[in-house]
Amino acid sequence: MTPRPVDAVVVGSGPNGLAAAVTLARAGLRVTVLEGQPTPGGGVRTLPLEGPRVPAGEGLVQDVCAAVPAAVSGSAFFEEFDLAARGVELLVPEVSYAQPLDGGRAGIAWRDLDRTAEGLGVDAGAWRRLVGPLVRHRQEVASIALSDKRSVPWSGAGTPAGAAAFLQALAVLAGPGGERWWRTEEARALITGVAAHTITRIPSPAAAGTAAYLGALAHGPTGWPLVRGGIGRITDALLADLRAHGGEVVPDHPVRSGPDLPAARATLLDTHARVAADLLAEPYRSRLRSLPVGAGVCKLDYVLSGPVPWSRPEVALAGTVHVCGDVGDMRRAEAEVAAGRHAERPMMLLSDPVPLDPGRLGRTGLRPVWAYAHVPRGSSRDVRAQADAQLERFAPGFRDLVVDCVVTPASRMAEHNAAYPDGDISGGAISLWHMISRPTARMDPYAVAPGVWLCSASTPPGPGVHGMSGLHAARRVLRALGRPVPSLAP
Asked: Residue 246 is part of a domain; what is its CATH number?
């Protein structure tokens, strides 16, 4: 299929690419999105889950990459876009996240801040002092975390207080001295598990910022939500709006080199900086290649015959479970991966959608359980044995429930999404410097060549299902074309 003449071409249909495309189409531009996969959505897709031991017609679906869009509730793009008004139902778990520990213990992050604090015993006051201000100013904290890192974000009179809460959390959590803030292993592990979303060494300033921002959203009205029917419903809503405003998506249309790009007034690239570099000439190519590739993930799509038998029953109420152990376990695991080695006990994230969304059960009662493990970039290793051991450690009897497991090593993640070279789902290495300077240390991190803008997780604010990289880039395109920024409301 030959793309039509357009004003703007967007390469990649992940949430950032579609956020940019929707914004430009609503501004009156003719927009075409080119997607290399048969189905659009990038890391926000829900597809059939099939395996050799899954009965035919079971009807299971898997979230291909992201499963829990925790950043949605803090995103200015999705706040205005209004997913609920477009029929996307966000399911709010009573427990946003949990951290199982040995001996049947666990840290439980209830959506209710006070209930969480009360469960931490002698650390109740410390949790309220550190996390409470973040929660009270969570929108301001989110605006800081999701900013373009080039301008002063402003979301109301509470912005200075939100900035102060954010800086306090960074000061406490960024260094090894932060552990002195807590007296219980449950509290230490609970906040460190959030920091580990960065897939980098912990503690570190970048990991601390992630813990502060996502920790604040966990205790908000929507917590860390799941999506009824699968996260791909978000993509469906974005596609519907794009098409309603004259935009189109061309699937099965990979763009591998500059000549593959059709002529347009503006080209936006929603892909990893290293992938985008292959589309550009020098010196722009070398600039993008200066962003280091980050660590990888090995994706595991389990099919279970029953719920995960957690030793601590409340863990089953969590939309997201951080599986590794205590702070020492997590530090060792992330240090091994950062050094290019596999951890014997890897850091994992897991989500079982069925307690909130019974419609995800299969025809015979089988259930999908989404998980990934942190591994060195480019790893071709199937780490299921290590993942199974971790889960059996905190949920005795887990192995007996496994009917099947579809494993995607880091080295194969790009087969499902070209934006994940070597299994790097973060758009590049995560550090404080690389969060600010990604992809390069320039005043405009989105304009990467004449008429070309990067709008992926390789630009600020970085990884997550928030659409803000796309919105930031689209605003700059509209400014260059002399067009006003449109409303995104339904």
From this structure: 3.50.50.60
Q: How far apart are the C-alpha atoms of 318 and 104, rounded to whole Å? A: 16
Residue 203 included in any domain: no
Cis before 203? omega within 30: yes
Task: Provide the 8-state DSSP code for 13.
Answer: -
**Cβ contact 17:237 at 8 Å:** no
pLDDT at 50: 93
Cβ atoms of 141 and 165 within 8 Å: the answer is yes
Judge whether 314 and 110 are in contact, CB under 8 Å: no
Domain-embedded: residue 264: yes
Q: Beta strands 452-454 and 367-375: pairing type?
A: unpaired
Beta bridge partners of residue 459, listed in sequence order = none
pLDDT value of position 175 = 84
Of 251, 273, 206, the closest CA to residue 420 belongs to: 273
Nearest of 465, 20, 435, 488 to residue 249 by alpha carbon: 20
Contact 329, 430 (CB under 8 A): no
Q: Are 455 and 16 in contact (CB under 8 A)?
A: yes
Residue listed under structure tokens 């007996």: 400
**Length, in residues, of the chain:** 490
What is the rounded distance in angstroms from the CA atom of residue 8 to the CA atom of residue 347? 40
Q: Average pLDDT across each block of 10 residues of the chain; the chain has 490 residues. List them in order.
A: 75 98 98 98 97 95 97 96 98 98 98 98 98 96 94 75 94 86 96 97 95 96 97 98 98 94 96 97 96 97 98 98 98 97 98 98 98 98 98 98 98 97 97 90 95 98 97 98 98
Query: 457: domain range?
Result: 8-46+232-292+428-481
